[in-house]
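Incident log, structure service

09:12 report received: a user says their structure output differs between two submissions of the same chain.
09:20 pulled the input from the user's history:
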Amino acid sequence: MKQKVIIIGSAWPLRGGGIATFNERLARQFQSEGDDVTIYSFSLQYPSLLFPGKSQYGNEPKPKDLTIKSVINSINPFNWIKVGKKLQKEHADLIIVRYWLPFMGPCLGTILRWVRKNQHTKIICIADNVIPHEKRPGDNAFTKYFIRPVHAFITLSEKVMTDLKLFTNKPAQVVIHPLYDNFGEAISKSEARIQLNLPQEERIILFFGFIRAYKGLDLLLRAISVLQQNDNHPPKLLIAGEFYEDQSKYESLIDELNIRDLLILKTDFIPDSEVRNYLCAADFVIQPYKHATQSGITPLSYHFEKPMLVTNVGALPAMVPNKKAGIVTEPAPEAIAEGIQQLYSLGEEHFLFHLREEKKKYSWEVLTGAIRSLAAEQ
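09:34 re-ran on a clean worker, output below:
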């Protein structure tokens, strides 16, 4: 039966990284299943003082197949009430709300309280994080405020489910982060390197995504230094993503380690249209996280069938079976360096069968099915 579905979260023209991409792909999945879908996004997502990047907006054209309303102001309580009343009157069958940062708790929690007044709409939260990577005063209070009007939860890892249970016993289910299959099909490594003007014969590993402290780029830079000392042919590291913290400390570390010749720096925001070039150009994708819940880079790598190195933190090891879909190491420079050498020793072909088998688990139909099941139980 056709349902009226509303997704609350980042979307075009915001470039919310994986969250915006995820929301738009989820909307398309519901549409493909016959539902009427609208995304309610932000007119103001973050105050400029709190936004770590260069711009909150991307350059991609507006998606022609999606209805996106940029109406939520994250810091204006009068707006929260206005949007809440509007969504209450929309009388949607289902609202899916993303939660990734306690800062959003007051805004989204207020909107959802108004929605609940229609006594019809079922509210399902997809929780990327419950306990944030960078903790701030008020986090717990904001999260508790947000949780109260939600009927049920989806988490994308067991780690987030464990965190969620510290706050609520409401119905919840873990669903593996689906594939990011909306960046086009894979192209040859040769063609991708031509597109990016990279050397054809060079060994190249990739660090991809926003650069934040918990993602461990400093560990990877130190691992490159270890390889420089111990490997006659160390790979070059392609760093593709915008700095979301102080760039100067990384520049100082690069100079201290004397590894600049081994780096290819593409540290601007990577638009959606170029994502596949970076994934396809690399030999391997490296995720040297210091701590993690889950990572959108993992399903992205699965889509392009690119073997990974992940560190033994959060849900990453569960998502990347060791020596099958990639290599799992401890989050330390020497261990990461050894893991990179293992990747090259085993070779890309070694991992392909397992990557193709593993990626079958990462279905958008599984996610929409879980959301519908949770909603029907409320």
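09:41 both user submissions now match this output. Likely a transient worker issue. Closing.
09:42 reviewer note: The mean pLDDT is 93. The radius of gyration is 21 Å.
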